[in-house]
Each structure stands twice: as C-alpha cells, then as structure tokens.
C-alpha cells in the first residue's frame, strides 16, 4: 500500500514538473505561512480497481483507471486559519452509501481540525490536515512545490482514497 502511494506521488510530481509555474515562490510561501489559500483541482486519480476501470473506460476520453481531467470546473479546497471548506468530486468505491445524493462528492466545511505544515528539501511543503467534525473525510495530505503545484490525497473510512493534482493560489476577494 505504501509503495503504491509513493508511486502515485512520484508520477504526480513528474507530471507537474512538465507544466509552467502557477504561482511565484514568494506567493506560495506567503499563502502557506498565512494558512490562507485555495487548492484548485485540475485532475483526479481514483485508486484503480476493476469496477472503477469499467466505469472510467466508458467516460468520454477515458482509457481506464487513470487520470480524470477536471478542466473548466470549480473544484477546490479553501484553507483558512479557522476553517477548511471542500468542494471536490469523488470517483471510486464507497463502502457505505449516502442517504442524500447531493453528498456524493467530498463536500464539507470543518472548523475542528488539526493542521501541520512542514517545509521539505528543495522548497516544497508537506501539509497534513485531520478533521474531527466531518462524517466522511478523515484526513488530507497536500504536497506543494515551491511553484504552487500541488497534489492532494484524501483519506476516508467509508471510501477508497483519491488523489487530486492542481495548484494553490491566493483566495479571490469576495465582491460586496
């Protein structure tokens, strides 16, 4: 299991390195230190199994249990000092069904959570969040490069893990 996770993280980082920078280094450092940023998901990678592969191969552009492009979407994770708000899709196997079909994705707002940001070698960050007031999602691990590219791993008791690729940015000011 740990080897699969390491392979997924390595593959994600290789893909992210090939693209252009999303944010400059100063902005990345500032938003992480202030704990005030938005993770914008651009693709999702569900854990592959036969059931998921069958469904994904029927989707437009789907070649089986690989990456699902989320371009044109507004899927994001908003992190502030006092809350974490998630609006992300979910692809994969759920071990318990939800009673409300609107709860199909990874949607929640948490005010009771632990947050740990650790600076790694070469300027990257490893951010772990554990939630105490959400019914499904237990933890998230966010790996952020110094250019703002990020990989988000979502772990749950009731669903298979899923990984998202994307970038972090400063939150946009709300219009009054």
From TrEMBL:
> Does the keyword section mention Signal?
yes
According to the lineage, what is the superkingdom? Answer: Bacteria
Q: Which Pfam families match?
A: DUF4251
Q: Which UniProt keywords apply?
A: Signal
Question: Which residues are the signal sequence here?
Answer: 1-21
What protein name applies here? Answer: DUF4251 domain-containing protein
Q: What is the lineage of its organism?
A: Bacteria, Pseudomonadati, Bacteroidota, Sphingobacteriia, Sphingobacteriales
């Amino acid at each position: 299991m740990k080897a699969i996770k390491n392979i997924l993280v390595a593959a994600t980082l290789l893909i992210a390195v090939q693209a252009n920078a999303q944010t400059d280094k100063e902005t990345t450092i500032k938003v992480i230190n202030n704990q005030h940023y938005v993770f914008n998901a651009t693709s999702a990678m569900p854990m592959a199994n036969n059931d998921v592969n069958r469904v994904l191969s029927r989707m437009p552009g789907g070649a089986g249990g690989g990456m699902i492009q989320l371009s044109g979407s507004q899927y994001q994770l908003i992190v502030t000092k006092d809350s974490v708000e998630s609006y992300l899709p979910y692809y994969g196997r759920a071990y318990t069904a939800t009673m409300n079909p609107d709860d199909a994705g990874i949607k929640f707002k948490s005010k009771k959570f632990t947050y740990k940001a650790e600076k790694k070698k070469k300027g990257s960050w490893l951010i772990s969040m554990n939630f105490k007031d959400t019914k499904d999602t237990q933890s998230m691990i966010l790996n952020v490069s110094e250019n703002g590219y990020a990989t988000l791993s979502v772990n749950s008791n009731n669903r298979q893990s899923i990984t998202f690729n994307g970038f972090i940015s400063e939150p946009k000011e709300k219009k009054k």
